[in-house]
C-alpha cells in the first residue's frame, strides 16, 4: 500500500490531504481518499474571524470566500465575494462590518500573484455581491506586504467605527522623505492608518502616521479612539514585568535582540503592545541614535502613559517619540513583532500576526499567545479579566475551564468571545459570566 500525503500546495488549495493506493502488481489500483478536505470546514491559517453580534453570525476568512457560522458553531453557508456583475471572484485578506447591512473587505482579484500585492477596499452585501463606490472612490491601491496569495498572513489591519468610517493599516508608499528620521532614510516601508468615509471618500491618508513594520491590528471604540497593536515598548523595557523578574536584561547585550549564542531572542518577537490613540490620531517620530535619556522609573505593572521624560523604542533599539497616544499596555498582546536587530527582511515583515477585538462596551479582548490565555482591558488600559489555561491539542474545554494552545484571533461580543487557534486549527466560544450577581425587586423599592 502506498500512502500519499499532500505537501504542496497547502490544504486550502488541494483537493485532498491523504490518499491510499494499493499496488496490484502490474498497475496501481484506484486511489481512495482517507482524509478528504471538508467542503465547508475550517482550513489552516489564516483563521481570521469577523463577528456580527446582532445576528449572532461568525464569518471565517477561507481563502477566496467567507465561511458563515451561527453563534453555536453550525455552518450555514459559504459566501464567495464577487464583483457587481458576478464575473470576478475576489480573494479575501481582511473584513469588517459596515452600516446598513454591508461588508467591507480588503480584497484582490484573481491572477494577481507575487510577493508584493496591492489590495483594495471593496464593499459587499452580506451575501457577497459587490456594491461599487460612487465616483471611483477607494480606487487607490493599498500595499499589504507579502500576503502570499491573499492568505492574509501579513495583512496589517482593518476596522470600522460606529459611524461607518473605514480604517486601514497599510504601507505608506507616498511618505515624504523629510518626515523620516536619519536612520530610516531610504527605508520606504513606514506604516500609516488611512481613514475613509462610509462612501469611500478619503478623509485622511495618515490619521496615524509612521508606525513601524511591526504594526499589526487596529480597532475603534464608540468615542473615536483607535487601538493599535505595535512592537514598540517604553525606553529601557524589553520583557513584561512577570518575565523581566526571571530573565536577564537583554539591553545588557551588545545587540539586544540576539542572545549570547548568536540566536535571536524569540521572546522579544512575541511581546507586543496595545497603544491607544485619541480621536485626532497621532504619529511616531524617530529620534537620533545618539539621543540619551534617563532610565524611567518603572510602574508596578505594564501599563504606561506618555510623559515628557519617557520615550519609546523598538526591539532593535531605535528610539521614538509617540504623539497622540493615551496609554500603552505592554506584553498583553502578541502580534509577533519583527524588529530583529540586523536582519533586514525581518524589519519589514510581520507574518502570522494575531488580532485583538473590542466588544459592545468598548472592552479590549486580546490573545496572549505566549501565556496561552485571553486578557480583557478596559478603556483606560487596566486588566479586567483573564481566561485560559495552557493546554495541548487533546485538551477539551468545558464551561468552567478554557484550555488554549495558540490563541491567535479574537472576535468579541458583550457576553461571549470567539477564539481562533492555530494549533490545533479550531475556534472556541467562551461565555462571559459575572463574578457576582444581585437581583432587585423594583415593586418593593429594593
Short description:
The protein has 446 residues and is mostly beta strands.
Question: What does the secondary structure layout of this molecule look like, with pairings?
Answer:
Blueprint: E1 2-5, E2 18-21, E3 32-33, E4 49-52, E5 57-61, E6 65-70, E7 75-80, E8 90-98, E9 102-109, E10 116-125, E11 142-145, E12 158-160, E13 166-171, E14 191-196, E15 202-211, E16 218-220, E17 226-230, E18 232-234, H1 241-244, H2 266-270, E19 273-277, E20 282-286, E21 303-304, E22 312-314, E23 319-323, E24 325-330, E25 357-358, E26 364-368, E27 373-377, E28 383-387, E29 389-390, E30 403-404, E31 407-412, E32 416-422, E33 425-431
Parallel strand pairs: 15-20, 29-30
Antiparallel strand pairs: 1-2, 2-3, 4-5, 5-6, 6-7, 8-9, 9-10, 10-11, 12-13, 13-14, 14-15, 16-17, 17-19, 18-22, 19-24, 20-23, 21-24, 22-23, 25-26, 26-27, 27-28, 31-32, 32-33
Amino acid at each position: 500500500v502506498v500512502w500519499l500525503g499532500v505537501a504542496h500546495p497547502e490544504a486550502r488549495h488541494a483537493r485532498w490531504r491523504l490518499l491510499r493506493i494499493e499496488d496490484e502488481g502490474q498497475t496501481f489500483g484506484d486511489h481512495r481518499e482517507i482524509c478528504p478536505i471538508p467542503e465547508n470546514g475550517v482550513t489552516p491559517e489564516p483563521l481570521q474571524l469577523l463577528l456580527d453580534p446582532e445576528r449572532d453570525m461568525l464569518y471565517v476568512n477561507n481563502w477566496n470566500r467567507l465561511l458563515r457560522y451561527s453563534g453555536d458553531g453550525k455552518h450555514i453557508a459559504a459566501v464567495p465575494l464577487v464583483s457587481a456583475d458576478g464575473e470576478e471572484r475576489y480573494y479575501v485578506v481582511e473584513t469588517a462590518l459596515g452600516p446598513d447591512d454591508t461588508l467591507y473587505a480588503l480584497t484582490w482579484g484573481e491572477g494577481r500573484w507575487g510577493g508584493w500585492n496591492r489590495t483594495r477596499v471593496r464593499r459587499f452585501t452580506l451575501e457577497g455581491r459587490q456594491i461599487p463606490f460612487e465616483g471611483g472612490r477607494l480606487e487607490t491601491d493599498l500595499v499589504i506586504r507579502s500576503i502570499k496569495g491573499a492568505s492574509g498572513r501579513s495583512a496589517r489591519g482593518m476596522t470600522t467605527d460606529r459611524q461607518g468610517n473605514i480604517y486601514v493599516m497599510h504601507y505608506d508608499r507616498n511618505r515624504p522623505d523629510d518626515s523620516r528620521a536619519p536612520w530610516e532614510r531610504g527605508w520606504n516601508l513606514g506604516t500609516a492608518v488611512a481613514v475613509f468615509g462610509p462612501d469611500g471618500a478619503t478623509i485622511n491618508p495618515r490619521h496615524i502616521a509612521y508606525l513601524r513594520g511591526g504594526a499589526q491590528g487596529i480597532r475603534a471604540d464608540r468615542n473615536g479612539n483607535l487601538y493599535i497593536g505595535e512592537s514598540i515598548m517604553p525606553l529601557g523595557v524589553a520583557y513584561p514585568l512577570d518575565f523581566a523578574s526571571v530573565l536577564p536584561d537583554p539591553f545588557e547585550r551588545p545587540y539586544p535582540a540576539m542572545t549570547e549564542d548568536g540566536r535571536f531572542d524569540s521572546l522579544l518577537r512575541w511581546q507586543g503592545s496595545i497603544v491607544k490613540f485619541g480621536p485626532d490620531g497621532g504619529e511616531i517620530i524617530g529620534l537620533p541614535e545618539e539621543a540619551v535619556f534617563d532610565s524611567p522609573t518603572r510602574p508596578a505593572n505594564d501599563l504606561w502613559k506618555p510623559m515628557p521624560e519617557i520615550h519609546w523604542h523598538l526591539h532593535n533599539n531605535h528610539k521614538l517619540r509617540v504623539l497622540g497616544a493615551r496609554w500603552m499596555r505592554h506584553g498583553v498582546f502578541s502580534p509577533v513583532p519583527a524588529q530583529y536587530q540586523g536582519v533586514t527582511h525581518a524589519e519589514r515583515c510581520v507574518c502570522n500576526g494575531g488580532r485583538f477585538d473590542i466588544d459592545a462596551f468598548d472592552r479590549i479582548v486580546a490573545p496572549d499567545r505566549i501565556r496561552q490565555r485571553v486578557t480583557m482591558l478596559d478603556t483606560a488600559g487596566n486588566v479586567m479579566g483573564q481566561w485560559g489555561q495552557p493546554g495541548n491539542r487533546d485538551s477539551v474545554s468545558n464551561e468552567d475551564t478554557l484550555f488554549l494552545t495558540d490563541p491567535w484571533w479574537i472576535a468579541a461580543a458583550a457576553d461571549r468571545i470567539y477564539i481562533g487557534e492555530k494549533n490545533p486549527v479550531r475556534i472556541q466560544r467562551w461565555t462571559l459570566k459575572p463574578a457576582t450577581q444581585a437581583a432587585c425587586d423594583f415593586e418593593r423599592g429594593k
